[in-house]
Structures are given as C-alpha cells and as structure tokens.
Design brief:
The complex is a heterodimer of chains A (about 270) and B (about 290).
Chain A: H1 2-14, H2 17-34, H3 44-77, H4 80-85, H5 91-130, H6 136-139, H7 141-171, H8 175-190, H9 192-201, H10 205-217, H11 227-231, H12 238-264
Chain B: E1 4-13, E2 22-32, E3 37-41, H1 48-55, E4 63-68, E5 71-72, E6 82-85, H2 97-107, H3 115-125, H4 141-153, E7 159-162, H5 171-186, E8 190-195, H6 198-204, E9 207-212, E10 215-221, H7 222-229, H8 241-253, H9 268-275, H10 281-285
Parallel strand pairs in B: 3-8, 3-9, 6-7, 7-8
Antiparallel strand pairs in B: 1-2, 1-4, 4-5, 9-10
The chains are: A mainly alpha (about 270), B alpha/beta (about 290).
Chain lengths: ~270, ~290
Amino acid sequence: MTLVAESTVREAMRQRLFLLVAGTAAAFAGGALALREFNLGASEPRFLMDVGFGAQGVFGAVLAIVASAQLFFAEFERRTALIVLARPVRRREFVFGKLGGVLVLLLGFCALMTGLLVAVLWWRGAGLDRMGEGSTVLRTGPRLGDVAWCGLVGWLRLGVLAAMTMLVASYARSSLFSVVSGFLLLIIAQMQHVAREFLGWVEAPWARGAAWLVRLLIPDFRLLDLTDQVVAGEALSGGLLCATVLYALTYLGLFSVLSAFCLRHREL
Amino acid sequence: MNAIEVDRVSKVFGAGAVRPGIRALDGVTLRLRPGEVVGLLGPNGSGKSTLLKIVLGLVAPSAGECRLFGWPASRVEARAAVGYLPEAPGFDPHATGFEVVRFFARLGGGPAAGLKERVARAMARVGLAAVMHRRVGTYSHGMRQRLGWAQALVHDPKLVILDEPMTGLDPVGIAEAGRLIRELRAAGRSVLFTSHGLEQVAEVCDAVVILNGGRIVLDSRVEDLTRRAERVALIVDLLPPALLAELQRWLQARGITLHAAERSEPEWEQVFLEAVGGGGDRLTEAP
C-alpha cells in the first residue's frame, strides 16, 4: 500500500500537478502583496482569510477530483494496474494506496496554502500594527493557530471529496464520468442543508426516504468548514474540532472501504 | 506441484436475470508443470486473455477453479512467484525505465539489499542497459515491450505469464523474446504465453493449446504437432484421373493420407530453363 501511495505521489509530481498547486499558491501570495496598495483596515484579515480559504477550497476541490480520477484511471489505461494486481497486492491495498497518494498531494497543497495564509496574515498584521490599525485577530497568536486548524479541516474535507471520487472511479469505466460525478457530489455535499430542510417539511414517505438517504450517505460539507468561525474571530473549541475531525474521518473511512469493495468485485 | 491448474473453468460476461451474457470460456482445463513452456493460441476473441486473467486472479471464473502452485488464484499468496507481461503495456511516460522496474521489483517483495543491482541486471537482460535512465516517454514501442519484460522478470519469478509478448516486435525483437523464453525454460521456470503465430510458438514451446470460441480445440505436445504437420510434397507430371485414384489407394493401403492433389499453374520459367538446357549462363557467354 505504501509503495502504491509513494508511486502515486511521484507520478503526480512528475505530471506537474504540484506545479498547478504551487502556481495557485504563488498567485495567492502575489494577490496578498497587491493588497499593500489598499488600506482595508480592520476588515483586511477577514478579506484575506476569505480569499485564502476560498482559493484552497476551489482549487483544492479541482485537484482532489481530477487527481483521484486521473491517477486511478491512468493505471488502467496503461494496464499497469493489471501488473500491480498480478503481484502479491490486494485490491484494497491498491485503492488505499492510490487514495493515500492523493491525500499526501492534498496535504502538500493545503499546507502550502494555509502556511502562506498564516504568513500573510502575520505579515499584514505587523504592517497594520505599525500603522496603528492592527486588529486583535491578527496580533494574537492562538487565532493564527485556529487558521492552521481550519486549514487541516479543509484538507480533511478535500480528502473526503477525493474518497467520494475514488468510489465512483472504482466502478466507473471512464475518467470523464468520474470527474463529472465528483463535481456533482461536491455540489450535493455543499447543498446538504437543502436536503435537511426538505426533510423537515416534506410529507411523502418516498421523498422523505430519499432525502434521508442523501443526508446519511453524503457528508454535509458545511460541517467541515470552520472558516466562518475563524473569520468572525471566534475561538475554536476542542470539542468542535474533535467532532469535526471525527465526522470527516468517518466519511473518509466509509468511502475508502466502499471503493475497495467496488474494485474487489470489478472485472478487470 | 503444478505451476498452473485450470479445472473446467467457464466465464460468462454480463450475464443477468434477463440477458444470457457472453460466454468467453467454456469448460477449459489446463495444466502447466514446473519448467514447462506452453503456448496459448487462438483467433481474436477466443478467450486467451480472459484465461490469463483468470489464472492471475484478475477475473473470477463463473464456474470451475484455478490454482497456482496449489493456491487458489484469487489468493495473494498465489501471485508471489508470478511475473506478468500484459499485451501492449504502457508505463508512466515521465518515469525512467529504471524507476519503473525498481517499483515493480519492490512490489515483488524481494530483499531491499541489492535492489539496484537486480534492476540493472533485469534491464541489461532485455537490452535496455544503455537507456535505463532515460524517460519512458522517449522509448520506442519495442523498447517499452522490453521494459515490460524487465519488470516481469526482475523478481526472478517461478512462473511467467506473457500476453502477446511478440506483438509489435520486429524480427530481431521476436528472436530476442524467443531467446528469453528459452532461457527461462533452461532455468526451470514455467512459462504460459499467448500468441497468434503457431510457428513462433512451436519454436519455443513444449506444448501448444489452441482455443476457439472459448473451448480448447487442440492440446498437444509440440513434437506430436510437428509430426502431424510434417508432410512431403511430390511434384509429378500430369496424372490421368484413373492413375491418381490408383496412387491414392496405394498410399491408403500403407496408412498414408493424400491431403492434396492439385494441378499447378504452368511454371514458364522452368519450361524455358529446360528448353535452354538448365541455366542462363550460356546466354551471357554468347558473343
């Protein structure tokens, strides 16, 4: 499994997927530098965090979906998956290895983006302090720590999305189908609250059943987004963090196991 | 213990409650002894690749069972000593040949010590030593096929399964592939490979199995096949039908089958050469 994960990361690096990641991060850093021209005052940290986590969410989602589908299907198109599985490698090890490689790639992306965000917030905070307009959000240490936690939860959210895409890829016959399905699942996960509201007022048993199923099977990505609390300057409690991480890990595990189950029963 | 035991294996793809599905294999039984080389032949769609995938545990049979070294093919232990080359393999074009083979060598589970040497030896064995640090994207089709051979052999497997190993190779490449198969046999390794060319198979195999429509239509030792295939062509002057019939009866009485008696096209060059006395040298000597 480790070997497959290592090979996946290497391949992603060789395909210069990481260049895309670094490019995004560099664009973000460049954007932050451009902010020096404007004086947004105390609202600047909120703006920076919105932009930073927004970029991480959008580009990270693209990376999670495309990398999961592409790196998985490339193995089948080149028939190297057949060679790997003809060795003493279990199918679940292959799936977990592929997913593990994508998770490492996403971790690198999130670490880079969050690290840059923390650095920019610290740097802009120091600059604003000198101008006498520094906000408490920027000057206090724990808040920057919360930003880092927020980045970690963002990584877990992208990991769950990658696992959902991997589940589709494990039974789909084309990379394109997996990518499109991945984006649809992302939209459904983002709109989970609609299913919750629907469940509240609908009466037809079949509709209630469908809404309940969607609510159960697909995670609510709003629960995996702590940006609003951090942007609002609220301290993240340990309980909230634990519950959020547990929620993400549950779905990550569920989709990983389902992916392995699907590939196990797939005719290669 | 046999390297491969395929026992009455059938495979139906896409069968459902309403659809009958497509029968790719129908009651196939096959044995591969240690150190034996068997060639699997058949037209496209005859079930060769499906049979190899069942042997490798990549596809589950609908009926029957398959064992490798006594283990069910679906078990991971069964594949520990197997090298596999799929048809027309492609590898990560951004990786070097060395990196590709090293990855598969590590998957094979051998000792970490001497890994580089083993990889370099496998690359040299297939004639890629000079280009092993070049990116796979720069390799020709034949070189990629050789790379496939290198990854299949790098962990010194007891059983080597090759799907169309000679497809797309030039005559030199085909001769090289034949040499590698003979080397494997000499080292006591078992080899099962598919091919379209009976001649290529007969040159390197101990036995030949021909599949058609998912069934084995011929399973024979190569020496028996050679005996059957060896024939003598007699070229005689035009025979009257009565004499031809008499000749046929005479041969039949001695257990010899007359397979063909065809009137050939006139060989005008031969007529000319006979008329001028057997050669063209005299013409050049004329003043």
